[in-house]
């Protein structure tokens, strides 16, 4: 089979206006970025207010492994399949970050015959949204240091400036730096550092904002430092929000593209799924719901991170709720959770599959505990055996009472996921379901952390370091106690140890630090060693990405 980029390049794409026409989007609502990409105008988005909303379908997954699960591929395949069976469907995805594209993960536009296109543009600069977010964040950083340089009227304590700088690239050398060296004219030297752009609170705010006005208000609430008398300083205090909103004005318009089968997809925003909430923008999701009968979206990493944050943070803030949830699993990944080495995954191993099934079972149980109907999509790989798929379906039926469906959208496009589409339609007949959140907003912040750890992770308890506990108490004193919790932990395990795969229980979740994201509207609980600035692997993808003799990109995946 050709590579993803070869498949994408061989596709015949429709003019973006034809794609928009499927959902009744007029030409005047489009700001074109070439022939196959357009942004939806703010005015048009606003005109959708009051329209009835279609059904929201959330695609999540088991705990990720190096074997691959295919959550985005399944999201695209399901969207194509729903359109094939006559359901007017919009797909809503996050935008890829350049860091993973040139690092280890590669792009994030799906794969095989279930992709969003034009794949090269989407995975690289796209419409410049991430550059705008980087620039807005950088403007804030410059204004903070400029305020300190010119008399520091807010009495900012340079030892307690929380606002780091960002760049959309994996660069471990920038994690911790010393800035403002070289003399008096360059400011006051202090320690600083860089995060990757997708870890910026500006990104989280961008994806949770309802409109431009809400965006500016949320930016103003972001806490960036403390004064010498320990008062919180915000971006509004340093007069940054107006200019930042100007930089983000065009970026806040959702991006319309298409699948390989010519179906519409909105790709917009992309916060980190382990340091932030890991979902595409509220604006894009609400637009999809008002334009289509079905909107299929995904949440980052496994259901313990992505789905939990989608429900407890995004849905709670936006006032939306899924009608059904799809949990993506693969035979390969479950065998890895059962202890099989990656190099041995090509061999049939029913025993390992049964052992690894515990990971899927916990994710299914967790989603059901939110009160939502579930179906399992088993993403087919060529080395899978019929016996393995039959056993997995039997386990799902007998032990969980949930339907598991083999899907071949990677090889066959939407046609390979039609059975899944029919199952989703059946599950979604009841419409949006009330969510049984993991915790109440009125609960103490420590109790919210404990609820997530014990109810979803199988933990016996949490251990909050004294410094983190003091900060939580201070947040509550400042009036932030009603905010939801955003857990920052490894995506590879229910625990904080990435090597502890499967479905561990009885462990203790250690919280080493907490951060206030007042603009985004949540408190981040940092568990274990979580990097907000990733590094490149020994052999990064960038080593093999190049232009060929015809000027076409080669090596992007």
TrEMBL record:
Q: What class of enzyme is it?
A: ligase
Gene3D superfamilies assigned: Domain 2, N(10)-formyltetrahydrofolate synthetase (3.30.1510.10), Formyltetrahydrofolate synthetase, domain 3 (3.10.410.10), P-loop containing nucleotide triphosphate hydrolases (3.40.50.300)
InterPro entries hit by this protein: Formate_THF_ligase (IPR000559), Formate_THF_ligase_CS (IPR020628), P-loop_NTPase (IPR027417)
Extract one GO BP annotation from the record: tetrahydrofolate interconversion
| Name this protein carries in UniProt | Formate--tetrahydrofolate ligase
The cross-references to Pfam families, in alphabetical order and at most eight, read: FTHFS
Residues holding ATP: 65-72
**Its catalytic activity?**
(6S)-5,6,7,8-tetrahydrofolate + formate + ATP = (6R)-10-formyltetrahydrofolate + ADP + phosphate
Q: What is its EC number?
A: 6.3.4.3
**Gene behind the chain:** fhs
Pathway noted in the entry: One-carbon metabolism; tetrahydrofolate interconversion
One annotated GO molecular function is: ATP binding
Per UniProt, which keywords does this protein have?
A: ATP-binding, Ligase, Nucleotide-binding, One-carbon metabolism
What does the similarity note say?
Belongs to the formate--tetrahydrofolate ligase family.
